[in-house]
Amino acid sequence: MDNGKENLDEVTASQSILLVEDDVKLARLVTEFLTINGFSVKHIDNGQAAIDEILSNPPKLIVLDIMLPGVDGLTVCRTVREQYTGPILMLTALNDDIDEVAGLETGADGYLGKPIKPRVLLAHIRALLRRQDLLETEKGIEGAEHLIQAGPIMINAAKREVCVNDQHVELTAAEFNLLWLLAEHKGAIVPREELHQKIFRLEYDGLDRNIDIRISRLRKKLGDDPRSPSWIKTIRGQGYLLINE
Fold this sequence. Notes:
Blueprint: E1 16-20, H1 24-36, E2 40-44, H2 47-56, E3 61-65, H3 73-80, E4 88-92, H4 97-105, E5 110-113, H5 118-138, E6 147-150, E7 153-156, E8 161-164, E9 167-169, H6 173-184, E10 189-191, H7 192-200, H8 210-222, E11 232-235, E12 239-242
Parallel strand pairs: 1-2, 1-3, 3-4, 4-5
Antiparallel strand pairs: 6-7, 7-8, 8-9, 10-12, 11-12
Helix pairs in contact: 2-3
């Protein structure tokens, strides 16, 4: 890995990252690279210790390998996701769509395959942190204009809360952000390219399935049948539409 410092748009230098990786050599190189680029990195090499650390001392972002001794990365992600609301970026050496889908369905916010390209890793981390900072800023916003009703779904931007038929629905930061983007344009089609760019701060390449997987997961949490959705509609070849009823 190249240990050169990148001159991309900066995030706060004190941002803390937990790196969960059992490959000691790779972990050392990633830690050195991210430290040079202004991050505070803590390395843990097994899943159970990672769970304990995340729940007791949550970092700003987690870089999590899927293949770990003992408790694997998918289990780590699933275990901490209800309490940990920060971004989780998963790594794997396996070139398999099933692993990507599984990672995202357990609550991961991004996915990168090995071998890791340091600049790509850094770009993903910075994009996720920019999005997280934006979400945290929005928590302080108050006012009725930040309430959006879409059918049985009530979305409160100030409190970052979602209710369906007056029942609270627990969403991750990434899921709420995606729903809010749809809600801001309810009744209108939001192109997949626009959702991808706003969520990941990266241009859509026409092949990435992250938005589609997140929409599917969001439907399940809202109780919208993924096989025949009534509230979040797929407009084939165009994007997604949140009902305006």
